[in-house]
Every structure is written in structure tokens, then in C-alpha cells.
Amino acid sequence: MAAYPSQPNPLALLLLASLVVAVAGNFYQDVDITWGDGRGKILNNGNLITLSLDKASGSGFQSKNQYLYGKFDIQLKLVPGNSAGTVTTFYFHSQGSSWDEIDFEFLGNLSGDPYLVHTNIYTQGKGNREQQFYLWFDPTADFHTYSILWNPGHIVFYVDRRPIREFKNLESIGVPYPKSQPMVMYASLWDADDWATRGGLVKTDWSKAPFTASFRNFNSNACIWSNGASSCSNSANQWSSEELDSTSQKLLKWVQKNYMVYNYCTDTKRFPQGLPQECTVINKN
């Protein structure tokens, strides 16, 4: 059993008490399994997807729809035991060479060591905006909810409704922001033992294969993009102008203080010519 910290302070409960649970869709209606040669399975009348990985291949699925802004939830139960070298993903990606992307990646580890939650944001084909976190629970023991809010003002990553990262729209100071390219939701389980665990020092133990991750309750409260047009106007959706209130901001700072293990905005060795422009704003907060 991994050594996970104790549950957070009562501040977290204040946020949870104010939540409204959305109704999730059905995987048969919402997604297509796109690769894995049978290693991805839709089960339980469309309410569950399992993705598996063995030495021959991983597996993955993607949404049938494209989205331009929205609030998205999915519940995951990650690969248990020795998951070193494996990567489970939940992310959004547009097409083309100057793509936009919003990433949740879960980097496996040896039994007893915690998962690493790797987040990144690409704008116009440029990423290098990694922030990484440990979790305050064992993500392999049960399902937990991972969410992305993407609206014109900011992108927020959530774990069990707690914000862990915010990327603000800072176009006013010249930082590109994902605002015009519709994205597809992707999820996958694949092998990346050349970098995933301790920088590639720990390799995948194939004697433990197949590795399996489970997904359920994908919910998209979003604007669907079809035939060059959006299905909704931003003003028609509460999430389109949703901001972090004071409680959420305190939670965000609490998570980042206690569980963030890497922040590109403090990595001066990586950026000897100067930190990315948005870091001047991020580091002030």
C-alpha cells in the first residue's frame, strides 16, 4: 500500500458541500475506442471503460465530439501495484501543427510509492508548462474524479473537486491562450518507461502485465463544435464565466503548498534566458 498523506483540513469540506453533481453520459454514445486491438473495453451497459497495457500494446479512446470550452469530469481508478513505466492519460487535443492541448497524465510508480500527477498546457504547439503533484489518497484503491474547466478566462485542473492548478488567459501580456481551436477528449494507457518513472530509471516490469486502468462517469458540460460553429453561446453557460472564489483559491494554495513537486515557473535552470512570460504573474500569486 502506498504511503499517502492524511486527508486535507476541513477547508476542503466547505467546497465539497457546495457542489452540484452532474449527470454523466454513456460511453457507447460519447466515445470511440480507437486503438489497442481489443485491449480497450466498454462494459456495464456503457458505464465503464477498462484500458489495458501489455508488452505488445496499450489502448485508448476518444470523444465523438469536438469541444470549444466546457467543464469536463471523468472518474478514474489507476493501475494498482507496481505500475512503474505506465502512463494513464485524460486530455484534450486539437488538430494541426500549431495545436492546443490540456493534459492530465498519471505516471505510475513502484508499489508503495505514490503516483505522480503530471499536468501540461500547450498553446499553438508549444508546451513546456509542466506542473506535477502527488495526491493525498491512493488513486488505485477506488475511483476519484478528475476535472478540467476551460473557459475564456482560465483553465483549471481539479482532483475530487479541489483545484490543483490554474492557467489564466494572459493574452493581454502576449501569452497565447487556447480559444479558437476545438479539441477532442482523449484517454489512454501506454508504456513510457524511458521517462515516466524517476526519469526512466525504473522500467516496466512486464511480469505484472496486463496493467489495467478503469474509467467511468465522463461528463461534458460543454459547447460542441460542429461544421465550423459552436452549439452554444458562452453567456448561456454558468461555467463560461466561472472563477475561483475565495474558498477555492485557498484550496488551490493549500494543494500547491503541500503536494506540488514540480513547477516550471520556478525552474530557473531549465530556463536560463528567463522564465516564461506568464510566470511573472503566476509567481506573484
UniProtKB/TrEMBL annotation:
Signal peptide: 1-25
Post-translational modification: Contains at least one intrachain disulfide bond essential for its enzymatic activity.
Database matches in InterPro entries: Beta-glucanase-like (IPR000757), Beta-glucanase/XTH (IPR044791), Beta_glucanase (IPR008264), ConA-like_dom_sf (IPR013320), GH16_AS (IPR008263), XET_C (IPR010713), XTH (IPR016455)
EC number: 2.4.1.207
PROSITE patterns in UniProt: GH16_1, GH16_2
Annotated localization: Secreted, Cell wall; Secreted, Extracellular space, Apoplast
Pfam families given in the database record: Glyco_hydro_16 (PF00722), XET_C (PF06955)
Primary localization: secreted
Coiled-coil ranges from the UniProt annotation: none
Key words, A-Z: Apoplast, Cell wall, Cell wall biogenesis/degradation, Disulfide bond, Glycoprotein, Glycosidase, Hydrolase, Secreted, Signal, Transferase
Record SUPFAM superfamilies: Concanavalin A-like lectins/glucanases (SSF49899)
Domain GH16, first and last residues per copy: 2-215
Family (UniProt): Belongs to the glycosyl hydrolase 16 family.
Protein task: Catalyzes xyloglucan endohydrolysis (XEH) and/or endotransglycosylation (XET). Cleaves and religates xyloglucan polymers, an essential constituent of the primary cell wall, and thereby participates in cell wall construction of growing tissues.
The protein's name in its UniProt record: Xyloglucan endotransglucosylase/hydrolase
Provenance organism: Hevea brasiliensis
